[in-house]
Specification:
With 271 residues, the protein is an alpha/beta fold. The chain is built from 8 helices and 9 strands. It has a 9-stranded mixed beta sheet with strand order 2-1-9-8-3-4-5-6-7, sandwiched between helices.
């Protein structure tokens, strides 16, 4: 096992970039059905870390890398440029550490991983807020500005939001240069779409979608637990996740998923 080598690398690196590759090609998704989104992401990260660490040599004097690329080589699939027009690449971004520059990092990494120049749509989950405070336009603005810049730079075609009520969606719509094209609603919190939200979305041509993601897809403690389980004796408490991006590649004409996966970034904090 290469966990000693992996642990040595993790003790000296500053950043961990993890890519699961196409879950459909290596059966990473749990066989038991249905898994929650949180169970799925934990499971996939654990399998990727375990597989990656098993391939690392035991040489503890190996080159020290500032940024570790943790992937399962056989699962990484670049897109065939000839097929690009037939495929739709969608992503949902979950920010864990509150830093708006994560948006650009995540989109750049997703484009690079999939071998594409741009993503067709990116939905951003509400960034984490402190207990007792509620999400506001002011808090959303820096993240949305990052998305707008990526649209202007032709890295993304359409951008959307998640879990915004009618008031906040309207505030964002009025303020934003690039308007939200969609808003996801969690049906666990409301079995029926709120009528005011439906009316507003219809008026301004915003697509309302449903989702079942939890407020926090992968918290800090959960990621550290997965790291600990995958690589023995690693100093897991030194690592914190910054963001997770979930992507899917859909064949437009048939509506079937060709590939899906997760990309995430974590950083090491000095102990």
């Amino acid at each position: 096992m290469g966990t000693d080598g992996a642990r040595a690398l993790l003790e000296r690196a500053a950043t961990l970039n993890l890519q699961t590759g196409n879950l459909l090609s290596w059966g990473c998704g749990r066989k038991k059905c249905p898994a929650t989104p949180s169970e799925e992401v934990r499971d996939c990260i654990q399998k990727t870390l375990t597989e990656w660490s098993s391939k690392i040599g035991q040489d503890l004097n190996q080159e020290i890398l500032e940024v570790l690329e943790c992937t399962v080589a056989q699962a990484v699939e670049k897109m065939n440029p000839d097929e690009r027009d037939e495929l739709k690449v969608s992503a949902k971004l979950f920010i864990v550490g509150s830093n708006s520059s994560s948006v650009r990092d995540a989109v750049d990494m997703a484009c690079s991983a999939l071998g594409v120049a741009q993503l067709d749509s990116v939905i951003i989950a509400p960034p984490p807020i402190e207990d007792g405070t509620s999400l506001s336009l002011e808090y959303l603005q820096p993240y949305w500005q990052e998305l707008e810049t990526l649209v202007q730079n032709k890295k993304i075609v359409a951008i959307g939001t998640s879990d915004l009520d009618k008031t906040l969606l309207e505030q964002l719509y009025v303020w934003a240069q690039v308007k939200p094209s969609s808003n996801q609603v969690n049906l666990a919190s409301c079995c029926v779409m709120p009528p005011d939200l439906t009316a507003f979305a219809k008026q301004f041509d915003i697509q309302l979608l449903t989702h079942n993601d939890p407020k926090e897809l992968l918290c800090e403690a959960s990621f550290q637990e997965v790291l600990q389980e995958s690589i023995q004796n690693v100093k897991a408490q030194e690592w914190i996740p910054l963001w997770i991006l979930r992507y899917s590649v859909i064949v437009k004409s048939r509506g079937i998923i060709k590939s899906k996966g997760y990309i995430m970034q974590a950083k090491r904090i000095a102990s």
